[in-house]
Amino acid sequence: MPQLLLELQSEEIPARMQAQAARDLERMVREALSKEGFLPEALKTFAGPRRLTLVAEGLPPAQAERHEDRKGPRVGAPDQAIEGFLRSTGLSREQLIERDGVYFAHLHKPGRPTPEIVAEIVEATVRSFPWPKSMVSGTSKLRWVRPLKRILCVFDGEVVPFAIEGIESGDVTEGHRFMGSREPFRARDFDQYQDGLARNFVVLDPEERKERIMDAARTLCFARNFELVEDEGLLDEVAGLAEWPTPVMGDMDPDFLDLPPEVIRTSMRVHQRYFAVRDPNTGFLVPHFVTVANIEATDGGVTISKGNAKVLAARLSDARFFWNEDLKTPLEDRLEKLKGVTFHAKLGTMYERVERIAALAATLAPFVQEGPATKAKAAQAARLAKADLVSGMVGEFPELQGIMGAYYAEKEGLDPEIVDAIRQHYRPQGPADAIPEQPVAVTVALADKLDTLVSFFAIDEKPTGSKDPFALRRAALGVIRILLQSRTRLPLRTVASPDLLAFFADRLKVLLREQGQRHDLVDAVFALGDDDLVRIVSRVDHLDRFLGSEDGKNLLAGYKRAVNILKAEEKKGALPSGAPVDMASAPVEERELINMAGHVQIEVEKALDREDFEGAMRELANLRAPVDAFFDKVLVNSDIPEERDNRLRLLVKVRDAMGRVADFSQVTG
Question: Under DSSP, is residue 164 helix (H, G, I), strand (E, B) or coil?
Fold first, then answer.
């Protein structure tokens, strides 16, 4: 079937916008095609420094005829309503169909040629494209990320004719700005287009550009017994800067290696977009870097590397100046400057935040590790953790906050545990980030995140929908991960409000769902009012295994049957109170369930006190057989009031015994 090829060529598209632009182009065109009744067999988009490309396979030459029965007003409706419906359909009153007292319009829409529809779709897409930032140029009214220069649009080997703000579509494109042919070339299908770009030094696919960069950069390093410091974010960026990416190794002044490696790497990455290089045996940086050029230089990149080295030297000289100046002022002496840094208009200054975190760290320390030393170190580390925010280096490289504070603390000769806590107190910053391990660092990281959550919930700045400007979801997941992995038994209710506790419950469900757990089991355990996440997760794990067994499945069915009976009886009046009585006249199945329910209730309590959840589930399993027999042989709603009341009390006892383990009414299985 025919193929659609579209290229939108412009001046340089910022690298950070390219991936999303490719996704937006695919989404918008796919949705527009679907609306017109088209379902392409395949649709793919590509983004690069100067072009967005889309190829769609399997589109028909023309749109199929479409028929629609559109519902209108009721028969007898006011004339104005009927006339409005007729105008919207283009029909006369005689052409309407009456069905079940309602007017319907049978509409027939003949199919149109696909190129005609494509032209409309492309123009609508271009004019409404959601660039984060866009501009107009010259006399054009078109807003695009950078001036739009050329549109290639071909369907089934023929140009789709249209124009947007004076830019006419065609079958012509061009290659690399410097290395390609000076003459544009024609392309009537995707293979011809891609091959033409390759001959003109353009790698269309961003994934292929990344692979090309990594292969060449690793080879350069391997040839000199070095190792590339890989950086996925930097790779994404440089792949969006070069159409014909060509890695080149450069040299830097080895004297700069006395700077912290994070400073060197950040200066390379942020200012110059270079990859760092290290010794694979020691892991230490070496005085070299890899830059990605957009041309194959005739001198092998010597001139490029020398120029880049000079620029890097200037940047690292600035970094050395900040480093030397920062070392002159102890962290403790920087705290006063935090009084002039606003954290949030409703939450005071950064100094006030530090005071809160330090107090909270002292409160949390005993839960993490007993002992006055941990408490004192945690409070001190919390006081100093934000001091580097007013340092010159962090002012230049905000991403180094915490890291630089740790270096300064180390230079001051502070306790290694305090140094480590300052370095790690922002962790984890994402799902792939490790959590702190030693107790002081765990304490300060918890205090930092909990203060953020408690503070913003207190001023009602909570996440709504997809909006989370203060990254509270990430902070909550960070707290949960730290508590679970460090096995810290913190009762969250001591620091969190009810709505914040509910927020933690939601985040825990997200985390456990990603790990394959059922969210309804989290609800069933949270309903008990427990706020110890370590205990909650342990209980959920054992509950999941129990309900996966035959005993668990059958007992859950019996529980739900009992609860349904109790709910029905509660509608008639209050349930009978007190414990069930072992009446001599009772059936043996009733008497056995009374005895087993009493035994299980006692043993479950003992197991829960020991936090032996496996034992508690094992005791519940003992209820399975007598519950099955009871419902099989005993009529709960006996005509004899005493028997009915006793059996209802028995069902209450079974429900309550199981309810000590979890709220089984929350279980959906």
Answer: strand
| Residues in a beta bridge with 232 | none
d(CA 67, CA 149): 40
Share of the chain above pLDDT 90, in %: 79
DSSP string, 409-461: HHHTT--HHHHHHHHHTT--SSTTSPPP-SHHHHHHHHHHHHHHHHHHHHTT-
Q: Does domain 66-109 have CATH number 3.40.50?
A: no
Can you list the alpha helix ranges (DSSP code H) found in 327-433?
331-334, 350-368, 372-384, 392-396, 403-411, 416-424
The CATH architecture of the domain made up of 3-62+114-199 is 2-Layer Sandwich (3.30)
| Separation CA 247–CA 229 (nearest Å) | 14
CATH 1.10.3210 fits 338-532, yes or no: yes
Q: Specify the pLDDT at position 97.
A: 87
Query: Would you place residue 457 in the very low, low, confident or very high pLDDT band (cuts 50, 70, 90)?
Result: very high
Q: Would you say 499 and 461 are in contact if contact means Cβ atoms under 8 Å apart?
A: no
Please report, for residues 461, 463, 533, 592, the alpha-carbon distance to residue 507 in angstroms, rounded to integers and kept in the order given: 17, 12, 11, 43
Higher pLDDT, 394 or 180: 394
Q: What letter does residue 398 receive in the DSSP assignment?
A: G
On the question of a common fold for 3-62+114-199 and 338-532, the answer reads: no
Tell me, what amino acid is at 242? A
| pLDDT tens string 572-584 | 888 888 888 877 7
Radius of gyration of the chain (CA): 35
In whole angstroms, give the CA distance from residue 328 to residue 330: 7
For the domain spanning 549-666, the CATH number is 1.10.730.10
Element (H, E) at 163: strand 163-164
- What is the 8-class DSSP label of residue 113? B
Which of 191-205, 424-438, 574-588 is least confident? 574-588
Give the tokens for residue 248. Answer: 């080149």
**For residues 388 and 378, is the Cβ–Cβ distance under 8 A?**
no
Residue whose tokens read 């620029």 = 311
Taking alpha carbons only, the member of 218, 365, 362, 345 closest to residue 292 is 218
648, two tokens: 């209802």
Distances (CA, A) of 328 to 325, 337, 404, 411, 574: 6, 15, 14, 10, 76
Name which of 117, 123, 112 is nearest 168 in CA terms: 123
Count Cα atoms within 13 angstroms, Cβ side, for 665. 11
Strand partners, 348: 344
| Closest-CA residue to 421 (of 382, 394, 472) | 382
Residue extents of the structural domains in the chain: 3-62+114-199, 66-109, 206-326, 338-532, 549-666
Are the C-beta atoms of residues 114 and 61 closer than 8 Å to each other?
Answer: yes
* Closest by Cα among 305, 253, 300 to 274: 305
Residue 430 and residue 435: Cα distance in Å, rounded? 10
